[in-house]
Amino acid sequence: MKNNNHAQVKLIDTTLREGEQAPGVFFTLEQKKYIINELVNIGIDEIEIGVAGKDNNQLQPLAKYIHNNHPQQSFSLWSRCRKTDITHAARLQPTCLSLSIPASDLHLQTKLGKDRKWAVKTLRQSIKQALTVGIAKVAVGLEDASRAEPDFIIELARAAETAGAFRLRLADTVGICTPSSITQLLESLDETGLELGVHCHNDFGMATANTITALEHVAEWGDVTLLGLGERAGNSRLEEVLAFFVLQNTSTAYNLTGLPELSRQVAGEINFPIAPTRPIIGKDLFSCETGLHLQGLMADPATYEPFAPEFVGARRRLLIGRQAGRRSIAATLGRLGLPRPDEKNLTRLTRQVRSLAAMLDRPLGDHEIIQIATTNP
Fold first, then answer.
1. What are the backbone angles phi and psi of residue 287, rounded to the nearest 5°?
2. Strands 74-80 and 46-51
3. CA–CA separation, 36 vs 41, rounded Å?
């Protein structure tokens, strides 16, 4: 089994394609340019800008914008295995064309009325056409790979490799994979010469975990979207996957600085509420009120924080409320420039703080703590 060096991890942001498939999500051309600029600053390896087709009138100006303003940035188009779409895509000169074909019998037969023989033949022809019309790099995406027969996935992979594709992305289209099952699926293809990637959906809340696990073990490429935008429950979240590799595995390939602000900006534009405790970008992520945890955080923030809030543009908030303990209150008094009371008065003060916080149903502000501490019992 291949064990990836973290320097090999590569991320494909598909917010502009998959993200727009989320109900009610639509980005203007100017918004897309802004997103592209920020993704370039972050260091995303490849930006998938949309679905190849003449009816998508934003593709041409977007492709031109990247060519003119970010000539070193790799970008791709997603395309059906359809001659007219491939020809249209070639005119836009993407770095890569990602051809999609169903891999499961359910999708082939029920959705398209086709069989496996048709899929293999069509895939070969489409790859060769794309290379013939001047597309330098062709990738293949296997739709519904997590419900396909493993032997047929291998057959499609071999056909893709023989025809000249460089990458194979496996789509967990309905989000049923677990970290162990997606690893097993990838390992069956590890002997091919193809670069392997994953496109994970979040129907059971495992998209980010599946993508990170795949990238840690076998895959070189992982699809992500801002805020996890996508169909149904969405996809792997860019902010979580990228932050994990930067902060936990010390990848230097990406720049975290602008990611939280980009996420919040996009969320505001599409009216997408961010939960206060959402990983990486939630506003209350570094707020703590638990007595024992407050004690640890005051001594050393690393006791209860996996990384410093400054890395994601956040700030630490240590809240004194109904769960506050004697030590955390004593430390707060010291922070406020007040003398430490004797043990009897510290016990009284702790009881009063807890009581007032419970009555108000919220943590106390500094001025309220000062008032209690400076008032005679």
1. -95, 135
2. parallel
3. 9
Query: 367: buried, middle or exposed (CB in 10 Å: 19+, 13-18, 0-12)?
Result: exposed
Helix or strand (DSSP H, E) at 143: strand 137-143
Q: Model pTM? A: 0.86
How far is it, in rounded angstroms, from Cα 185 to Cα 148? Answer: 10
Q: Do residues 322 and 357 touch, judged by C-beta distance below 8 A?
A: yes
DSSP single-letter state for residue 175:
S
* Predicted confidence (pLDDT) per residue in 312-363, tens digit: 877 766 667 777 777 778 777 777 888 888 888 888 888 888 888 788 888 7
* Separation of alpha carbons 145 and 75, rounded Å: 24
Residue 348: its H or E element: helix 343-360
SS3 367: helix
Structural tokens at position 281:
């970008």
Amino acid in position 4: N
**Could you give the CA distance from residue 35 to residue 266 in angstroms, rounded to a whole number?**
8
Closest CA to 2 of 192, 170, 181: 192
Amino acid letter, residue 11 = L
Distance CA 334, CA 364 (A): 16
Q: Which two tokens stand for residue 127?
A: 């790859």
Question: In 133-168, where does DSSP find H-type helix?
Answer: 150-163
| Higher pLDDT pick, 262 / 357 | 262
Beta strand ranges found along 179-292 (DSSP E): 195-200, 221-224, 287-288
| Residue owning tokens 């057959």 | 155
The fold adopted by the segment(s) 6-269 is: TIM Barrel (3.20.20)
Spatial separation of the C-alpha atoms in residues 14 and 48, rounded to whole Å: 5
Domain boundaries, the chain: 6-269, 287-374
Cα–Cα distance for residue pair 301/307, rounded to 1 Å = 9
Give the C-alpha separation, 1 to 321, whole Å: 51
DSSP 107: I
